[in-house]
Amino acid sequence: MLKLQAMLSYGFLENTMTNILLVTSSPRGEDSLSTQTARVFADKLQAAHTGATLTKRDVNADPSPHLAESLVHAIRRPAADRTPEDIAALAHSDSLVGELQAADIIVLASGMINFGVPSALKSWIDHIARSGVTFRYGPDGAEGLLKGKKLYLVLAYGGVYAEGPAQAMNFQEPYLKTLLGFLGLTDVEVVTIEGVAYGPEMAQKAVAAANERVDALVAASAR
Ligand SMILES: Cc1cc2nc3c(=O)[nH]c(=O)nc-3n(C[C@H](O)[C@H](O)[C@H](O)COP(=O)(O)O)c2cc1C
């Protein structure tokens, strides 16, 4: 009892709490395979990490506006020179960045649209990639500032891009890995659900394989 009190007073217990952020982005609502799989994934991660919090951000249901001139100016202006209008323009971006900064584990779901990511996810990215906040340039070049976090990408595809000439047409996974890696999220695992446009049997198999991978990743995360 005494030991527990001492741990609480030193904040040891609070510091070990895991914060999970679930970002979903599909425009296909409840039919979305990336959303369904990522939700199960995040719930299982939460169950595996005692006391973990789970924050949900659906960037399609609650979209970030396209970059506007006011936001670009606000982002670029040094913090000390910002006007009240700049601060108001940055409020949404600040809250999205805050969610990422608070997260220890990020589960990000995306389904390929026209060879890339859904436009709602691209808009979210435009709000979270902030020089001096989520990345910076120093003497050694670019440095990501979202460090020490685990990133799980849950990616759905109508086609199959794992091998052959179609690999070069996958602008979803390389883009997300490059961009999020640039922000410091380099510890990444990918769950792929592919070939879902080839009929229900193939889709079912793809989802089953993804769920198996989710279970293996959750088990590894809890160790
Ligand atoms: C508008 C639209 C465009 C799509 N474009 C592609 C594409 O370029 N390549 C592909 O393999 N699948 C494409 N698909 C299929 C989706 O990637 C597939 O349905 C996937 O499951 C979507 O992810 P979700 O289930 O999480 O919504 C497209 C689907 C839609 C609705």
UniProtKB/TrEMBL annotation:
Catalytic reaction equation(s): N,N-dimethyl-1,4-phenylenediamine + anthranilate + 2 NAD(+) = 2-(4-dimethylaminophenyl)diazenylbenzoate + 2 NADH + 2 H(+); 2 a quinone + NADH + H(+) = 2 a 1,4-benzosemiquinone + NAD(+)
Family (UniProt): Belongs to the azoreductase type 1 family.
Name of this chain's protein: FMN dependent NADH:quinone oxidoreductase
Organism: Capsulimonas corticalis
Cofactors required: FMN
GO molecular function annotations of the record: electron transfer activity; FMN binding; oxidoreductase activity, acting on NAD(P)H as acceptor; oxidoreductase activity, acting on NAD(P)H, quinone or similar compound as acceptor
Pfam families per the UniProt record, alphabetical: Flavodoxin_2
Subunit relationships: Homodimer.
Chain positions recorded as FMN binding sites: S26, S32, L33, S34
